[in-house]
Design goal:
Layout lengths: L1 E2 L14 E2 L9 E2 L16 E2 H16 L4 E5 L4 H15 L1 H7 L13 E6 L14 H9 L5 E5 L4 H4 L4 E7 L3 H10 L3 H5 L6
Parallel strand pairs: 1-2
Antiparallel strand pairs: 3-4, 5-6, 6-8, 7-8
Length: 198
């Protein structure tokens, strides 16, 4: 593992090999003007400002198509990720937890650029059944138009080190980059030729 050189970059790569400093917290966190599955203004409701603006545009476009999205979990601090991972490890063991949860410092949620999304009804939120929903299909087809990618794509598990997560989207900047990745069918590690540890 080695530290990220540019933790505040919109294009930052964070994975099982590249980690963020324990003290890193984005300086431009805001509360996106989009629906969430909860009402409280708490840590996980935040995103970096550029990502939040793009998310709002995407949610508005989805609504025009009759697809109603909700946020589930955005920014997550190092300490929160540590608490979550330890909980999952106690429940499922270290190796199993590593397939679906990040060690503290290696979570994209700490960047403030990633968010878990569900349908407005919350059914299948952060669950494998989300892949079969119209919301997941819409995200797969359109998220790149707003600078977001499905970060842990199906068929890329051997590269990202994580199970397929159709609900986990990551803002990577201008839509041109996301659209190019979508067209080529590559994940972030492939695009930048930086691979993750298993």
């Amino acid at each position: 593992m080695f530290p990220s050189k540019y933790p505040s970059s919109i294009g930052v790569i964070v994975n099982k090999s590249i980690y963020l400093p324990q003290t890193y917290k984005p300086q431009d966190l805001v509360y996106p003007d989009v629906p969430f599955l909860f009402q409280e203004k708490i840590e996980k409701r935040q995103l970096r400002s550029e990502a939040a603006m793009a998310l709002k545009k995407m949610f508005v476009a989805a609504k025009k198509d009759g697809v109603y999205l909700s946020g589930v979990s955005g920014y997550r601090s190092y300490d929160t990720q540590k608490w979550l991972f330890e909980r999952y490890m106690k429940r499922d063991g270290y190796l199993e937890a590593m397939k679906y949860s990040a060690l503290p410092g290696t979570s994209e949620h700490q960047t403030g650029l990633a968010i878990d999304v569900s349908g407005a009804d919350g059914k299948c939120a952060v669950s494998s059944c989300f892949a079969n929903t119209k919301e997941a299909q819409w995200l797969s087809q359109h998220s790149a138009e707003y600078g977001y990618i499905i970060r842990y794509a199906s068929g890329k598990e051997h590269i990202t080190g994580y199970k397929y997560e159709p609900w986990h989207i990551r803002y990577i900047g201008p839509s041109k980059l996301a659209l190019d990745m979508h067209k080529r069918g590559v994940c972030l590690e492939e695009y930048y030729n930086v691979y993750s540890a298993k």
